[in-house]
């Protein structure tokens, strides 16, 4: 690969940051094969203007503090001015991707009056869905029976959103339509229970049907039903940001909430198809639509291949290919490296799970680094006997890294990158992103309305970026809402003040012509000095004076990554010694996390 190197000479000497494993080097020529999964476009919409004014105020579109993290999750909001403020803030720190948290499809029962229930009580969100004095459920069943007395509503589902869909959501106009009641618009969908979604719209043959009631957008102050996704895509055009709207989540198994319930997957398929058909009509040509996000999270592990949630990914991938060709599905599974729990997984087991996920056809896999939840640690191989960060103790107790975890996040991303390379050779396109968690397991006060998770700091976020290394194509973070804006100072303000600090992510031994040397990759390396330290010595090597700098990242590397090379005689370092490599700028700013490198012979 272009981002991995083989060093060939009279003797082969190689070292990679934090690992003693030599990785394959120059990217092989891609085989000629059918692209089996859409790959994200690298072309981002260009901001329309440097500044614009609307009823929410005046906003600038200047990228003032570009950081290594270039994508963030956001939560839905009913206030359009909040969207504008968030996208302005995200773009200011280099963000070019926004991923929306979504909602789930839910199976519901109804009472004798056809009212939709929640936990045994009438659900207030759907009580206003009325037609001709009947509940939407009873009205749908009435219309079905008019077509054939043997028809019936067998199952009822609900889905909530703040979107206002177009006519592309409907397939059979005589049975499906909008229901405007009060300030909200509802959508009534009727389809066969097997997910076939019969396009003939023949209701004359008696059969059971699924009813899906979608609670959609609410009227704004002007009495209009504004579509939230249209608004987000417009903002994406304004700021030059890709938007990833969320697909519906599958209903979960009652006895295992981490798995999709296979009984309801056909209905989820119907709803997904309808939503994406509507997107295809309204948004297929929008540059700001980067793809779609499936929010159902799974743990990456040895048993993942048998998880029915993979059926959800595969089915939705097929629909996306049909309705939004070229737009990838993004998923973000999580890691758990803890040794003291029965479900902790090794890097090899996670790599096997990466392959299983990629084979569903999803275009982007962005594994959570799981440092924020404490399920994985950030450490180097020579730090296995060190005590864990005290912020991890609520999760793993007082322990060493080696006792607490099967590996560091770096070990996991490295193994997944190797599997990705194998898949590319076989013609399977998939991107590996790193989702670095911008929070701590606990905080006082907590940052979110629910749970105990608290604020982290830029130093720790820099460390997470370092550990992702050169193994990923992009770095994103969960999440902007709550965690980036929490506390004083907020993580957002820390980045704005300290964005220019260098971050070294990888160092290898690499010769140039007849000179031995060291190649460093990272962010903000321009004007820097590479610092090399080992037990019996140290060197400071000015890149501009003695080496060279390539400021243009390769296609496979994250935005903003640079490559520096300086001459260095590795013979002065004792065999198998650990070397710490950092970068320091003339301003005095220095990478807060140094790379730990060992050369094996």
From TrEMBL:
Transmembrane segments: none annotated. Residues 36-47 have a biased composition (Low complexity). Signal peptide: none annotated. Residues 222-489 form the DUF4434 domain. Residues 29-48 are annotated as: Disordered. Gene3D superfamilies: Glycosidases (3.20.20.80). Pfam families: DUF4434 (PF14488). This is DUF4434 domain-containing protein.
């Amino acid at each position: 690969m272009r981002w991995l190197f083989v060093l060939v000479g009279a003797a082969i000497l190689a070292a990679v940051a934090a690992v003693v494993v030599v990785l394959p080097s120059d990217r092989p020529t891609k085989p000629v094969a059918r692209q089996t999964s859409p790959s994200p476009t690298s072309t981002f919409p260009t901001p329309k203007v440097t500044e614009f004014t609307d009823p929410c105020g005046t906003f600038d579109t200047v990228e003032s503090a570009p950081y290594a993290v270039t994508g963030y999750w956001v939560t839905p909001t009913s206030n359009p001015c909040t969207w504008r403020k968030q996208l302005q803030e995200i773009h200011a720190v280099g963000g070019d991707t926004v991923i929306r948290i979504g909602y789930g499809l839910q199976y519901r029962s109804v009472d004798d009056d056809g009212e939709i229930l929640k936990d045994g009580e009438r659900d207030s969100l759907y009580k206003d869905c009325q037609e001709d004095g009947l509940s939407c459920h009873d009205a749908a069943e009435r219309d079905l029976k008019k077509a054939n007395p043997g028809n019936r509503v067998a199952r009822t589902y609900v889905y909530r959103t703040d979107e206002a869909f177009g006519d592309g959501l409907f397939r059979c106009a005589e049975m499906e339509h909008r229901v405007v009641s009060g300030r909200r618009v509802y959508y009534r969908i009727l389809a066969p229970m097997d997910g076939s979604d019969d396009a003939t719209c023949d209701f004359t043959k008696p059969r059971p049907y699924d009813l899906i009631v979608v609670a959609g957008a609410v009227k704004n102050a002007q009495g209009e039903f504004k579509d939230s996704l249209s608004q987000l895509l417009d903002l994406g055009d304004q700021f030059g940001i890709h938007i990833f709207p969320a697909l519906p989540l599958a209903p979960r198994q009652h006895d295992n909430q981490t798995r999709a319930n296979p009984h309801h997957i056909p209905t989820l398929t119907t709803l997904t198809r309808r939503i994406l058909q509507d997107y295809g009509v309204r948004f297929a040509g929008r540059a700001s639509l980067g793809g779609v996000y499936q929010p159902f999270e799974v743990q990456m592990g040895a048993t993942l291949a048998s998880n029915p949630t993979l059926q959800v990914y595969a089915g939705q991938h097929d629909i996306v290919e049909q309705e939004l060709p070229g737009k990838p599905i993004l998923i973000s599974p999580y890691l758990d490296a803890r040794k003291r729990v029965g479900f902790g997984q090794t890097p090899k087991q996670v790599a096997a799970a990466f392959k299983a996920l990629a084979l569903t056809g999803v275009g982007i896999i962005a594994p959570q680094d799981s440092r924020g939840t404490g399920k994985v640690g950030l450490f180097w191989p020579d730090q296995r006997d060190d005590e864990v960060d005290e912020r991890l103790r609520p999760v793993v107790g007082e322990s060493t890294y080696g006792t607490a975890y099967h590996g560091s996040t770096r070990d996991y991303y490295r193994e997944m990158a190797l599997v990705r390379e194998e898949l590319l050779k076989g013609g399977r396109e998939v991107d590996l992103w790193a989702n670095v968690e911008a929070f701590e397991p606990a905080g006082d006060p907590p940052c979110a309305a629910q749970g105990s998770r608290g604020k982290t700091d830029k130093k720790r976020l820099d460390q997470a970026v370092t550990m992702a290394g050169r193994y990923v194509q992009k770095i994103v973070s969960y999440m902007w809402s709550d965690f980036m804006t929490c506390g004083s100072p907020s993580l957002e303000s820390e980045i704005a003040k300290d964005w220019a600090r260098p971050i070294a992510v990888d160092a290898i031994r690499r010769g140039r012509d007849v000179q031995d040397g060291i190649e460093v990759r990272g962010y903000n390396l321009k004007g820097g000095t590479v610092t090399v330290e080992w037990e019996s010595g140290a060197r400071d090597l000015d890149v501009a004076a003695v080496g060279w700098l390539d400021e243009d990242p390769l296609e496979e590397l994250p935005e903003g990554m640079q490559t520096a090379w300086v001459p260095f005689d590795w013979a002065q370092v004792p065999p198998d010694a650990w070397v710490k490599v950092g970068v320091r700028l003339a301003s005095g700013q220095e990478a807060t996390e140094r790379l730990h490198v060992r050369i094996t012979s």
